[in-house]
Structures are given as structure tokens and as C-alpha cells.
Design a protein that fits this description.
The structure holds two protein chains of two kinds. By secondary structure, chain A is of the alpha/beta class. Chain A is built from 14 helices and 19 strands. The longest helix of chain A has 26 residues. Chain B contains eleven helices and 16 strands. The chains are: A alpha/beta, B alpha/beta.
Amino acid sequence: MTEPGILEDRLRFDLPVPPAAMVIFGANGDLTKRKLMPALYRLAYERRLPAGFAVIGISRTAMTDGQFRDKMRENVERFLENSPFDATLWDDFARGLFYVSGDLNDAAMYGTLRARLEETVRARQTAGNVLFYLSTQPSYYEPAAERLGASGLNRATRPGAWRRIIIEKPFGNDGASATQLNTNLQKVFAEESIYRIDHYLGKETVQNILAFRFGNGIFEPLWNRRYVNHVQITAAESIGVEGRGGYYQEAGALRDMVQNHLLQVMATVTMEPPAAYEPNAVRDERAKLLRAIRPLAPEEVATHAVPGQYGPARIGGADVAGFRQEPGVDPEAPTHTYAAVTLFVENWRWAGVPFYIRTGKRMPKRVTDIAIEFNSAPLSLFEPDHGGGPIRWPNLLVLRIQPEEGISLRFFSKLPGSGMRVRPVTMDFNYGTSFGTRSPAAYETLLLDALQGDATLYTRQDMVQASWAVVDPILQVWRETKFDFPNYPAGTWGPAASERMLARRGHVWRVP
Amino acid sequence: VSAAALDAERVLHELSDLWRGLGKDASGGVLRACAMTVLVLAEEEDDPQSLGATVAALMREHPSRAILLRRTGAGEPEARATVQCWLPFGGRTQICSEQIEILAPRGRVGEVLPVVFGTLVADLPVVIWATRLATAMASEIKPLLALAEKFVVDTSGVLEAGEALAALERLRGARRTVADLAWTRITRWREVVRSLFNTPSCRGRSAEIETTEVEWNGAGVPSVACYLAAWLSRCCPGTRTAFRRASAETEAPEGRLRSLRLRGPDFDLRLERPAGPGVDIAAGELATRAIFLPHDPADLLREELSILGRDVEFEAVLPLAKTMATLPVEEV
């Protein structure tokens, strides 16, 4: 038992998490309340956190440890999803919660933080390992990192201990600012200690794409330009900007969704098989794929990318405001709340296959999925049940990310009775119901990975740069073009121009 | 529910009819999911309701065809098929799984074996769970052993573990693994010990351990105590094992583990389980608590159904545990 490995039972135990403390900057913010603290509590409930795990929350609001614990309890009880709240467990978990009030730009605050961290090493046996989480406005990333460096908190003081930092998107506003942010972060933390979180990659169903592709032998031979006709990636939200109008009117749909989440999802669907399921092997393949996406030339943007903005509508007997009528939004805002793009991957596997990506707010429903449409059978022997004409329903494989996670395959089946008439049917795998157990929330998976030092599901700087290289040319043209917004009413699937974009290649958007 | 004559094809036909009926009735459709056959060997004395609830609880994580073979005291062999459905919260599609119940008087199980053979799901693993060790060891059950990828029993209820563990060893086969729910019951204890040896106060200090003390509640020597001691002795060779038996508490069942203590001249790690769901942990300066919610058979079986291949750790611990059962016990 000199090595902990001898106590392992890989079949039954989860991977061990080393002793650690987590420091949350922005501990009074929305993300901490809604996601981080419920995820940490749930990990404690699952006995996944190390004994003595500690959290130090930091924000400007003056609070004692006790008040912070009470506040976090209230949030966990309110925002915990699909999980019971256990008061006894909370009491034990809360003993590891501490609070430091102060300004991120104040050097003295980092002295207090250092003292608190030393205290946790002694009292909670955190071994000097610290995970910093920047859950703040992006403008604080660089000053906070700089102060951590200046105070020496970025360096572990004990042998074998580590310091890591998690930052939330957006990673810059464009390629240039992303480079600058990265340069400044890397002055303080080594690249392998920087964890850029993209919560989409933590979703169980996004990880299941890798299991589906590389755990089975029958799909990968079809996963190329020879069999795939085109791919549609949809991320629709039924809600509007929900109080984030100020932020959103600066960002827009392309920055908010496509540059990060959807290009990462596309890379997961299209990357080459990694040599091993190891952080850098997987991320190398994702990065290679992102670099293989051909950036649009300025003259192509008009035909390959469509922006949209929702206008007011009456839905279900209620008036729904347009984007420009939302609180905090400029009544003349040129922001795109919808974006659709056609992209091509320039490699041997995917050359010539269009990838259509669309995302938008105030669409008919909340849904994220990836639909892979296969080429039709070369010769149609059978009569479709809708009468004459060619069969219109090629095989379709849909990978559903949310809300009903799963996979479905559409294929033809013979209609019962005489004659040989066929009808499309779907074969469904429903992730949540086939496995009746609860899937971990994305933040649970990602926090645990960061504590274990597994960056597989985190974004690397070269991936960030490659994504901006795809998005920047489109943003550049859109910035210089005046659009006639709003161009789609709330509650619809987006502007007509988006349909025309697909029609140029004889395709139509699915109704997800 | 429908009765069927003792013929596998008739039972399967009944099952198909049930599915067809469900498909017609359910507006949102039904999802028929199946990952394995779970063959439950039970006795007439086993509470059919709690057995049914356990099987149903398994289906959500391990959708299977359940075949419940119950040995009765008298009567004629009979079989019936049922389909259990539930609508997941917020879902539109009902999830259904199938159950075939076969009743056979003791001594006449051989007459229903062809029905069992004929109703196993093709090309998928077969897991057998015997609710009692005596059922698993019955000679008329033996022909079923060859079908199983995994044979699950529970020795927790046996007062003296020695014989039970020896019987378990005899159930192992070249293609068949055995599992004991008593071993599954100590996963959480083992996991906590593992995690404590990752903390600074314990890391790398296993060589200092001289004695492992395991204390339980009630009479006899329970297999859970033997397994825990055997596992620790395997991980930490050369340590002395001390068994302690506490007088029975009214609120705690017989054989329930009460504490584990790993001691050396300058080392002391204690896990103590008072009456509630918590375990108090003391390791050096660290004092904390872990929550062990009560296990029900479905929780234990879920864990075992997740492991269909060889369980190397259990295979290594089983013979050691058998020897532990002969150690002297101190009454406290």
C-alpha cells in the first residue's frame, strides 16, 4: 500500500481525484450560483471529491464564511437538477467552503487569499494543489491572472503540487484579441495549466459522439465524402436574450455560439480517429480538423453566411418582444441573433461535403442536434408510399445533443400489405431512457477533469485560434454591411435567406 | 398478464402479443430495450412484490429480459409473461421491459429448464442471480450454470462465512464469473480507504500499518468482514487482522460493519459507522464524514450488472477471505 495504485479497483472505483482547493473568482455571480456550486455539491454527493476538498469564494460583496455557506446552500437547493438535496451531506460539504471579500485588482486581497490557502493546506489537507476558476467578466481575466502571477500564487510551493486555471468563454472577441489574452495568460500559467472551458464538450451526448464513432466498427467506413451528402448542425433556442441584452448586442450569435460550441461539435463529428483517448491525442485531431475548415473569402460571405435578427411576434396569445425591444438593447442595434453558415472541410475525407451550421434565438423550440444526411441509394427499385417521383427521404443519422439526447437513424421499410411500397421509419436510441440513470451535468464532468488534470474536453489555444480564423472573415464582412433587420419574426426558423443558402445546392433545412 | 402452457414458443408468442397490444395502445409509442437476460432464481418464500420491484428497478439502467424462476412447495409448473412499462418524467415514449415468470415445484425444476433455455434472449449475455445461496447450490439448478456469463449470489445473510465462501468458489467456472453481493456491499468502504490514502496524512504510509481491526454487529463471522480484511491484507501484506464482534444493536442488522481501524505505532486511521447513514472518518488531523446511504438489492445488482467480464480483484480476494473466516474473534 505504499502506492495508492494498489488500492485501486478500476472496475468499481471512479478515477481518484487528488486533494485540492478550488478558488472561485466571481463567487457571487450567476455561474457560481447556477452551475458551479450545484456541480460541486453533486460531486460531493457522488463521493467524487477528495476528503477535505475546499472552496474559497472571492467577490466584492462583504460576507463571512457563514454567510457565504448559507447563500450557497440556498443556491444549491434551488438550482440542483435531477438530484436530491441531503442536509447532512451539505453540512459536511459546507465545512470546506470559505470566503474572501475583495477587489480582483487589489494586491492586498491576494495576500489574504494566500493565507486562506495555507490554512486549507493545514486544516483540510489540500496538499497545496489549487484550481483557480475565473467566473468573472472577461475583462477581468487578464488583470486577475497578472495579480496571481505577481503574488506568486500561480506557482505551487510544495513538491508535486500543481496550480491550474479555468477560464470561461469568450476567449477574445476576435483572433487578435484571443492571441493577446493568451499571451498574457501564458506569462503566468503554462499552456498545460490553462483550462479553457467549453461546456458543450462536457455534455454526455457530445462525448457519446466519440463513443459512437470510435467504439463501433460499422459507422466509420460510411463517415466520409463518398457516402455523406451533407451535414446540418442546429443549435436553436426558444428564449430571447433574457436580460443579457447588453452583452449579447456586442457578441451576436456567431461569436456566442458558432466560434466556440458549434465548431467544437463539428470538429468532434468530423475529426480523424485519435491514436489514443488521451488529452493531446484527441485535441490534436480536433485542432487539425478546425484548421482544415476553409475560411470564406470576403466575396463568398454573402452566399455562404446569413445573419438574422428576430422581430416582435404574437405567440400563443402573448406578445413577444423583438430583439430591439428587449431591455438594455439599443433600438437600432445591428446585432445578429441568428447565424447560418456553409462551411467546407478541406481534407481527403470531407472535400466537397457542405456543413451547414445554424443557431438562433427565439426559434420555435430549444434543440441542438447534428444531422448527417447520406447519399440516396444509386437506383430506386421501390415505390415510395407518397406516390410517384423519386424517393425524397435519404438515410439520415441524427445525433441529438439536447433536450432529448440520443441517436436516431432514418431508413426505409416496406409498408405492410401487397406490393413493394416503402416508407421512411426511424430507429431511435434515447440516451436518457435507455440508461435510466442520471447523466452528470457538463460542469460536473469538466470540473472533475480539471481536478484530475485531464484536459481532453477543454479547448486548447491553437483550437481557439483556428476557430477565430473561420469566424473572423464573416464578422468582418457583416460589420461592413447594413442588413435590413429584423428579418425573421420570433418563433420561426430564421430568415428566408437562410433557406436560399441551402437551396443553391439543392438542400433544405430539416425541421428538427 | 396471461398464463401460458409450458412451452417456450408459447411463452414467446404471449410476449409478442403483449408487445403488439402495447404498441397499439400507446400514442407516443413504446421503446423495447434489451441488453441481456437476467435469470432470477428464487424460492416461494421470497416476497414476490419486493422481488418484482428489484427487477423493475434494474431495468432502467440495464434493460433486459427478466426470467424469474421460482421454486415452489407444491402445484404444477406454470409460466406467465408480463411487460412492465414506465413513462420517464417529461418523456412521451413509454419504456417497457419484459418479464417471464416460471413456477416449478422443488424437485421438478428439470421439467421447466427447456422453457428457460428457449426464452433466453439470443446473442446477449445471461446473468443469473440466486436470491439465496442454498438455491444456487441446489443440484437441479446445475444445468443452468453453463448458460451464465455471471452468477450472482449474496452471502451477507449467512452467519458463518467460511462455508459460504467455499461454496462460492465451487460455483466458479471457466467461462463463468461469480459475484457476491456481500463484496459489493463494501465497495464504498474500500473506496473511502483508497481516497484517504491519497491525502497527505496517509499517502505512502501503508508500511506503518501493523493491525487491521474490523468490527461488526451481532453473531457469527459475516462475509463482509472477511472480504474487507482480505482486501486490506492483499493490499498491505504482513499486517495482522483483528476481528471484533459487538453485541447486537436493535436498530442495526446482524453482520453490519461498525468500524474499521488501521493502526501502527504512529498511524491511526478510523472509519466508524454509527447508526445513521454517515461514516465518521479520522485520519491524522483530518476529521470528516462520508455518507453511506442504505443499499437495496437493486443498487447492488446494478453495480454487478455493470461488470460482465472477469473481476480480477474479487477473484484474488475470495480465497483470502475464506481463510479470514477462521480467525479468532474478540467479543466487545
